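Case study 2.
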Amino acid sequence: MKALYRNLFFVVGVALLVVMLFSLDMSWSEIWSNICRAGYWLPVNILLWASIYLMNAASWYVIIRDDKRVDISFPYIYRLTISGYVLNYVTPLGLLGGEPYRVMELAPRVGQAKAASSVILYSMMHVFSHFWFWLLGVVIFVVVYPVDLGMGLLLGTIATVSLLVIYFFMKGYRRGLVVKTFRLLSHIPYVNRWSVRFYNKHAEALRRVDGQIAALHAQHKRTFYLSLGLELLARVVSSLEIYFLMRILTPEATVVDSVLIMAFSSLFSNLMFFMPMQIGAREGSIALVADRLHLTAGYGLFTGILCRIRELFWIVIGLLLIRVKGKQIKD
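Prediction:
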């Protein structure tokens, strides 16, 4: 990537980080009080997320390395994974910063088509795993807790929507999704002209990307399911952060409760995808789910605040990683 673009991503990320810091609805004394209360569990969770990003990177790496002709190091993909997620965290609407950054960084090493297809495939896999995780949360809740009419309707809706999305994702994997997406955009006001111009200019490249997406599922099922499994595992492991923090406040917290809180709070916070870092949405959704599981809502708020502090730490790390240049590409 050109130094100009790398610097631009860095500057925009730092600017948005500053905006978010001043948007936090808590004082610095409250933040410090919660850090002291968490004790050594905060650095434990920071290290936990190093392993979660490792799983995310491995999921993307197996997609890239499915083409044996591509020779690229895992540490490099690990760095792009962290910095890409950081840009998504700080960017309103998400996916507007991290994905272009990853493509632009990767393209000089593997080619534009391979970079775009691997990033699109991994982004699809990341989203795909969320719907499997939410479906898993529904199943666990039904098995562990009694379900009244209201909760039954809510869980039924979540399960139905998740299954429908999983079905359409599988169709997209079999037949390609990019060209169809641009055809859909061509009928939407305000973006239709841009999408038509972009498609006409890059039609052949987009068809190649679709071909690579379809080929992964049709011809390389082992890679497909390994990548999906790693992403789903990362979702489940991330629940340990909730468990560690809630154990500070109550010995009654269980790993099952933590999985449910992580599943449903991520669902509700993703509904607020237009907010950078889902400011306020995550804390409120964790508190809501914790209360539904008959845990004091304060547990959820405390957990949400500590998760936010951990996330801010990794945002700083990710922004610094954007400034790190990879090894020079051999001619």
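Residues 274-281, 326-331 have pLDDT under 50 and may be disordered.
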